[in-house]
Every structure is written in C-alpha cells, then in structure tokens.
Design brief:
Layout: H1 16-28, E1 34-38, H2 46-61, E2 65-69, H3 73-79, E3 83-87, E4 90-95, H4 97-101, E5 108-115, H5 124-132, E6 137-141, E7 155-162, H6 166-179, E8 183-190, H7 194-202
Length: 208
C-alpha cells in the first residue's frame, strides 16, 4: 500500500488519503476472497484516488471479488465489470458499463445551454418542443440548470438523445434555438456516460 516508510508513525498523524490506504491494507491482511468497499475514495486528492484505483484493479486481476459502492460514476466505469444503479433502495438496472450506456436512446447525446427564450416572450418548453421535432431526435430532457448570475437571464439546459449523424444534429439544433430567438451559450456533444444513464433512470431532481 506504499506505507513502508510510515511504519513507525501514529495513525492519527496521517492524512485522509493515508488513512484510507491503512484501512484497505487492514481489510486485505487475511487475503479475503470477497472484499466490500464503501466509498473507498471519498474526499481523496487525485493522486490518492488513482493509487487506490490501481490497488483495486490489482485485486480484481488476482481473482478477488470486489463489491464497491460509490457515487463517483467515473470510478464505477473504470473499475467495475458489472454495475447496479440503485434509487431509494431499488435496483433499477444491472449490467456491464457498456450495456448500461446502451439504455440511453440513440447513443448520441447533445447538451445545450440556452439563454433568453423566456425573456423574449417565449416559454422555455417551446424550445424543447422544437428540438423534439428534429429528425433523428429520440428524446429531450431538461436537467437542472445553474442559477443565473446577477443581471443575467436564466440559462435553460437541454439534453438531446439522437440517432442522427452528430454533425447534422449540431447544425439542426443550433438553427432551431436561433429560430426560437434564444441565445445558444454553449453545447457539448458526447457519447452517453454512466452519469447520463443515472440521470436518465432516476431523474434530475435533487435528492433529500
């Protein structure tokens, strides 16, 4: 675990990352066949997180079954062979990372941030309706948007899921926003991530 140089130090003197390494080392002392880890990299700096990811991969390659709970979608994507997405104690989906990403309609996701539709006499849902009508678009979602800055109108976020050619989708979506007399702040074209899958399955409302 990279702690040989700290053998004579007291645990109370260790940083959070070093204490996480000690806890993982203690869990491995009896060479378990199955290891349960609950948020093992929570609140760690990037170097400590990458170090623990490497150790977990080594355990998997040695044949240890690792059951990992995490809110870090990148962590789940990198480390897990099978992933269960849970919401309020229920398993909504269980598959490989690639299999879960196929749950997103179409396989192409375009996220747009738009400003000013409401200020110009439009309701935001008119933009959403217009985007939904584009060829190849299978669905449009409205995730929570960041709060407006002082003196600026609110930003609406739209996520388009489509089977259309990405280049054609970009052009059509941008033209649609302009036609609705709104301002396109920015856009992001990407393949769906596990975070997109989680939001798609559970919704975008804040959890309590």
């Amino acid at each position: 675990m990279g702690l040989a140089g700290r053998a004579k130090n007291k645990l109370d003197w260790f940083s959070g990352g070093l204490q996480q390494r000690v806890m993982l080392g203690r869990a491995l002392m009896h060479e378990p066949d199955v290891l349960f880890l609950d948020e093992p990299t929570n609140n760690l700096d990037p170097q400590s997180r990458l170090f623990l990811w490497d150790r977990i991969r080594e355990l998997r390659e040695r044949g240890v079954t690792v059951v990992l709970t995490t809110h870090d979608m990148e962590e789940a994507d990198r480390l897990c062979d099978r992933i269960a997405i849970m919401d309020h104690g229920r398993i909504l989906a269980l598959d490989t990372p690639a299999g879960l990403k196929r749950l997103i309609p179409g396989g192409t996701m375009l996220e747009m941030r738009v400003r000013g539709a409401h200020d110009r006499g439009h309701r935001d849902d008119l933009v959403q309706t217009a985007l939904q009508r584009l060829p190849g678009v299978l669905g449009v979602e409205r995730p929570a948007a960041p709060p407006a800055s002082d003196g600026q109108s609110a930003i609406a976020v739209y996520r388009l899921y489509a089977s259309e050619d990405p280049g054609q989708l970009l052009a059509s979506a941008a033209h649609t926003v302009i036609a609705e007399r709104a301002d396109l702040v920015d856009l992001r074209l990407a393949r769906p991530s596990l975070e997109d899958v989680f939001i798609h399955l559970t919704g975008s409302n804040l959890r309590s």
